[in-house]
Amino acid sequence: MWPVALSSIRPLISWLQEEVPDEVLLKIMSYLKEKDLCRAAQVCKRWNTLTNDPTIWKNLYTAVFEYTQPMMHPEHGKFYFVKPEEYNCPNPWKDSFRQLYKGVHVKPGYAEHYHNNADRYKGREHMLYYDTIEDAMGGVNECHHEGLIFVHSGIYQDEWIYVESPVTIIGAAPGKVAEHVVIENTRDSSIVFMEGCEDAFVGFMTIRFSPEDSSATHHHAHHAVEINTNCRPIISNSIIRSSSTVGSAVCVTGSGAQPTIRNCNISDCENVGLYVTDHAQGFVEDCEISGNALAGIWVKNYANPIMRRNHIHHGRDVGVFTFEKGMGYFEQCNIHHNRIAGFEVKAGANPTVVNCEIHHGQTGGIYVHEKGRGQFIDNKIHSNQFAGIWVTSHSDPTIRGNSIF
């Protein structure tokens, strides 16, 4: 074959770059994958503009990640959605694609489809798909990827998810993501954080413990989320449930256990919602904790968590129960409509409660008894059925600057 002189194809190159209408080029570019789009952007200024078309990148993005809005990931442990029309750059879909690009995907049945249609996905050879979360986590241990795992729509049942490395496991689905990605166990704790999981992140999913025999005593040690000694994971934007009548939905236990739990919904559990014990600490912020059969929160045995801006309400028992030397710092929490007291302190417990609103308790607001202590400062305590604050049995709380009516 004779070589083609460059001079003979220059008119064609010029025509492609300058004369083809935008709508025709955009149609052609809509068939390209992300790597080819980035290469095409280097051809000329006009193509650079066209290849950055938000609609093209939105279609690419939703095909891979499924999100209805761009998910930003500017740094480790931080994920949030943005509205495209309010984003401060012209193409949030492309920006998000770049930030999430190195992740792997758990999408049952898709790995085989992906392998059998290699030509269709040319340019995405590095993009890994797994059928189970366990397999994806095994890929981290074998150094196949860096540990950013997207779990797509579905119910993932009875997998053994023990987190022992700083992985990120995040739901990926359209609309309300957490409602479409469900991790459920019927025999053991659904997700267990072990020593070595420093800075692990789990978010945007439903995590359920749903035993067949909800009253079996051995389930006392099983939870939807279990956080053990020397663990500091982040759990964010998730729905956490347990139908077991023993144990709790979330258990934080042991020295050095210090999770950050934020923007989670821990509600309608058949026992305790959140249980913090045995010198554990941590941060619980902006969570919805409601409708639990026993306390929304238990704090026991020198545990000392920091809890801010939580909404703790309509519990079928007490809202917050600190006992047996439990401590904790509670600030700007809204605690109301719990069946017994909004806040109960017992047996040497010594919490600090500041700038909270404790109201409409069906029995009372704050109940301190059996040598309970605590500092209750600058709270608004009102509209409770009986006493706003009830102190009995050799208890010695500090009560200062509260509005009680």
UniProtKB/TrEMBL annotation:
<dbReference type="Pfam" id="PF13229">
    <property type="entry name" value="Beta_helix"/>
</dbReference>
<dbReference type="InterPro" id="IPR012334">
    <property type="entry name" value="Pectin_lyas_fold"/>
</dbReference>
<keyword id="KW-0677">Repeat</keyword>
<dbReference type="InterPro" id="IPR051550">
    <property type="entry name" value="SCF-Subunits/Alg-Epimerases"/>
</dbReference>
<dbReference type="GO" id="GO:0006511">
    <property type="term" value="P:ubiquitin-dependent protein catabolic process"/>
</dbReference>
<dbReference type="InterPro" id="IPR036047">
    <property type="entry name" value="F-box-like_dom_sf"/>
</dbReference>
<dbReference type="InterPro" id="IPR022441">
    <property type="entry name" value="Para_beta_helix_rpt-2"/>
</dbReference>
<dbReference type="InterPro" id="IPR006626">
    <property type="entry name" value="PbH1"/>
</dbReference>
<dbReference type="InterPro" id="IPR001810">
    <property type="entry name" value="F-box_dom"/>
</dbReference>
<comment type="pathway">
    <text>Protein modification; protein ubiquitination.</text>
</comment>
<dbReference type="InterPro" id="IPR039448">
    <property type="entry name" value="Beta_helix"/>
</dbReference>
<dbReference type="InterPro" id="IPR047505">
    <property type="entry name" value="F-box_FBXO11"/>
</dbReference>
<dbReference type="GO" id="GO:0042981">
    <property type="term" value="P:regulation of apoptotic process"/>
</dbReference>
<keyword id="KW-0833">Ubl conjugation pathway</keyword>
<dbReference type="InterPro" id="IPR006633">
    <property type="entry name" value="Carb-bd_sugar_hydrolysis-dom"/>
</dbReference>
<feature type="domain" description="F-box">
    <location>
        <begin position="14"/>
        <end position="60"/>
    </location>
</feature>
<protein>
    <submittedName>
        <fullName>F-box only protein 11-like</fullName>
    </submittedName>
</protein>
<dbReference type="InterPro" id="IPR011050">
    <property type="entry name" value="Pectin_lyase_fold/virulence"/>
</dbReference>
<dbReference type="Pfam" id="PF12937">
    <property type="entry name" value="F-box-like"/>
</dbReference>
